[in-house]
Input
Amino acid sequence: MTTEATRNAIMASAMDVTSPTEQPALEPIELQPLVAAKPPVISSWAPVSLPRARRFWTAALAGALLLTAGGLGVLYVDDMNAQNAAHDLMLKNSSLTGRNQILQGQLTATQHELTTSQGQVNSLTTELAHPTLGIWNVPQNISGASFYLAAGVPDTFTYHLKLSSTGAMSVSILSIHQFGDAVRCVETGRGSTNYCMHHSGSANGWLNTTNVNYDFHLAEGCAAYLLVITAAGNVTVTPDVSVTYNPATSATGACV
Output
């Protein structure tokens, strides 16, 4: 009974639901344009999980590259420093070479000057040991056959006889003994002065000449000689006579 009553109640309710009712008015619906959905952005750099050993070798390789780059940088700097140092050395070497050439030139010039100076010293030493002095350079006149010019030849000297004349002259170097014989020849009338002075004996003689140039050595160890000059006519004699000190170690000429 109870069950039947319940069932009747449910059916009554259902019947009420399905009965026609007043429909509500429809409202307009605004349509929105469809927007395409954007696909999600997926990064191409997806994390990769590397093994531990591989990460270690990668780090080691990076460190090695850094060390290599640093070493190359150090080597480059050292190379530049070495090149700069080499360039500086080349400049210094060029400078030293130039200075060496200058010094070599100065040394050569100094050696030449030293050689020249040594030659001058040797010449002066020789000259001091054997000085040369002029002793007669004044022109003299001979007025004729009865006149003569005479000069002593100094001993311990080499006698440099150099004469010129305006006419023929006769020149003799006589020992004192020979000169005495010539004077006696004139005094006894055997001849003129121009004849007797050159025909009574002589150490050296030149007849009828206008030039004489002779070095006489017999007086280097003997003080016994005279120079005599005569002429047949009127002439002027220009002497250039000098002597060099050169003493002999023993007697010479007429003194022997």
User: Anything to note?
Assistant: The longest strand covers residues 157-175.
